[in-house]
Amino acid sequence: VISLHGIRTRGEWQKRMNLDLQAEGFLHEPLDYGYFGALQLLPSSQRAKKIEWFREQYERLRQGKEFLPCVIAHSFGTYIVTQAMEKYPELRFDRIILCGAIVRTDFDWDSVIKAGRVNAVLNQYGGDDRWVRLGARCVAGAGRSGVTGFESSNSQLFQELRKHFSHSDYFYSLNYRESWVPFLRGFDPD
User: Fold this and answer.
1) Is 133 exposed, middle or buried (0-12, 13-18, 19+ CB in 10 A)?
2) Cβ–Cβ under 8 Å, residues 126 and 101
3) 53 near 84, Cβ under 8 Å?
4) Backbone Cα Rg of the chain
5) pLDDT per position as a tens digit, 8-56
6) Which is it for the CA torsion 9, 121, 182, 101, positive or negative?
7) Which of 35, 74, 129, 179 is 20 to 30 A from residue 165's alpha carbon, by CA?
8) In this predicted model, what pLDDT tens digit does every residue of 56-90 receive, in sequence order?
């Protein structure tokens, strides 16, 4: 399982979640691209560097392995993963979990899933997420999927509205154990 944090952090939630994932038998790689400030989001060249970095990390982690990794991404991490998937068709994943996503609502999950590039996607989104709204307005190519969900109705795209959640309310053990771990094991949400 690969995890990827957002901006203005080094992904402390990834380190805390690591214990829960290891207790369930998962190998967890908490990717850390370093502290990335809000103003760094604006130039496309800065975002492009992180997309390239993610592709390099993907290649490193996949080298010599036959299994497809899963991904858990938050905020700018969701943008990095989906932009990398759009640019590099060789990137393939078993399951993807998004939370606080700043991905366009019209992202073409239907084609990605149909092509076998991902088996299933879980999008947990919050009704009280001001950072997604701001990111969608300020970052070229970003979107509001973290507050509205995706437009796709693909049967392998699962969307869970967490009505009272703000941007970082997803990071607690009960959510990992009761929602994320079963999904990563191949169980589809009810």
Assistant:
1) middle
2) no
3) no
4) 15
5) 777 888 999 998 999 999 999 999 888 777 777 676 888 899 999 999 9
6) positive
7) 35
8) 999 999 998 888 999 999 999 999 999 999 999 99
Token duo for residue 33: 């691209």
**Cα–Cα separations (whole angstroms), residue 32 to 5, 19, 57, 161:** 7, 17, 10, 27
**Is the sign of the CA dihedral 30, 94, 117, 76 positive or negative?**
negative
Are 138 and 42 contacting, i.e. CB atoms less than 8 angstroms apart? yes
Specify the amino acid at residue 104. R
Q: What is the pTM of this model?
A: 0.93
Rounded-to-integer distance, Cα 157 and Cα 110, Å: 9
For all residues of the chain together, what is the average pLDDT?
92
